[in-house]
Known about the structure:
Elements: H1 19-32, H2 47-61, H3 66-73, E1 84-90, H4 96-106, E2 113-120, H5 123-140, E3 144-150, E4 164-170, H6 183-198, E5 199-209, H7 213-228, E6 232-235, E7 255-258, H8 263-272, E8 278-287, H9 294-297, E9 302-304, E10 309-311, E11 314-321, E12 324-331, E13 350-354, E14 357-358, E15 362-364, E16 370-375
Parallel strand pairs: 1-2, 1-4, 2-3, 4-5, 12-15
Antiparallel strand pairs: 5-8, 6-8, 7-8, 9-11, 9-13, 10-11, 11-12, 13-16, 14-15
Helix pairs in contact: 1-2, 1-8, 6-7
Bound molecules: S-adenosylmethionine.
Amino acid sequence: MMVCIMARPKKNAPRPAPGPLAESVARLSRMLTRERDDLPAAYLKDKGNREAYLGYFLPANLPKVHLPLRELSLHPGNLFARDRLRVLDLGSGPGTALLGVRDHFVQQDRRPVLEFTAVDQVEENLRAAKSLFGELEDDDRGRSVLRTVMSPIESAGQHLVGQFDIVILSNVLNELFRSDKDRIGKRTTFLGLTLDRLLADAGSCIIIEPALQETSRDLLGVRDGLVDAGFGVYSPCLVQGRCPALANPRDWCHEDRPWDPPAQVREIDRRIGLRKDALKFSYLVLRKDGRSLADVCGPDAFRVVSEPLVSKGKRELYLCGREGRRRAMRLDKDAAPGNRPFDQLLRGDVVRCEGMAVEERLFRITKGTQVLPLLAFRERPQEDNPLP
Ligand SMILES: C[S@@+](CC[C@H](N)C(=O)[O-])C[C@H]1O[C@@H](n2cnc3c(N)ncnc32)[C@H](O)[C@@H]1O
C-alpha cells in the first residue's frame, strides 16, 4: 500500500504572493467583519467583491443551511413530505442557500420538486445565481426551477404571489437597518410582517447569520421579539421563553462545525492567512404552528451551547434548556459508566441528563446521573461515538 503524505508548509515559511482573487477575498473579509459599519449597500456590485464571494464565501456558506434542514427533517410530522416545495431566499446573493437546499434534497430518497425564488437588490448576483443553477440543469432532470426577482427585500412581497414552505434569510438580516439605533426593533417588525404575508402556516423560516458576537446577539434580540409576537422557535432552542444568553452581555449562541474546505478555499487561506476550516454561524428556525425540535427530543432535553471546558479535576460545558442556560459540571471523581457520554458532548449536541442535581447556578453531573445523548450532527471518531 502506498502512503501519501502531504507536505505541510513549514511554520515560518514565507507565504506565496496572494494574487488578485486572494487579495479580493482579504479585502471583502475585512469589509464584512472589522469594517462592517461602513459596508456599502450594494457591495456585491463590485466585480472583485463578487468574484471573492463566489470563490471563497459561497462554498463556506452553502452547507450551513444543511443543519437546520436536517433538524426539520427529523420531525415526526414529516414536514417536507410534499410533492412540491416553494422556497424563497431573501437576500439570495448568488443563490448560496438555495444551492444548499438543493444539495440537501438531492440526497433524500424522496425528492420534491423545488420551486426556488431568489430575491436580491443586486442584478449581478441574480445573474450569477441563474448561471450556477444553469450549470446544474443536466443532472437535475427538471427537479428544481429558479425564478429571480430584483428588489429590496423590504418590498419583496409586492412581487410575489402566494406563500412559501421555506423562507430563508442567509447572512442578510445583519445588513438591514444597520445604522439604525432601533435596528433590532426594525428587523423584528420587518420579519414579522414579511413572514405573516409570505410564510405558509406549516412553513419554516430559516435565518442564518455570521457567528460574530454582535450579529449573533442581535439575532437573539429579534428571536425574542418574534416569540413575543407569537412565532414559535423550531430550533436551535428547545424552549420558547426569552433567550437566557441575552442576560449576560458577553454571551452569545453560535455553531462551530468542523468542515473540510475545498482546495481553492484552502489555497486562498494559505496565501492571506485566514482560516476557514470550520462552519461558524448562528441560526434560527421559526414556525407559525408551534412545532419544534422539542417534539423530537422531549421537553427535558438540553442543547450544548459551549465547547467543553476541561480543567484540573473537572469537565464543564454550558447547557441550555427548560431550567435556563447553566454550566454543567462533572468532577473527575464522579465519572461513572452512566455519565461517560458527558466526555464526548460537543457544542450543538442535544442531550438528556437524568438525575443531575440542579443547583442555583450549576447543573451537577453526579455519579448517579444518566447522560443520554439524543442528537449529534458532528462527525466523531467511530470507536468513541455513543451518539446516533
Ligand atoms: C452577505 S450576502 C449573502 C448572500 C447569500 N444569502 C449567502 O448567504 O451567501 C448579502 C446579500 O443580501 C443582499 N441584500 C442586502 N440588503 C438587501 C436588501 N435590503 N434588499 C435586497 N437584497 C439585499 C446583498 O445584495 C447580498 O447579495
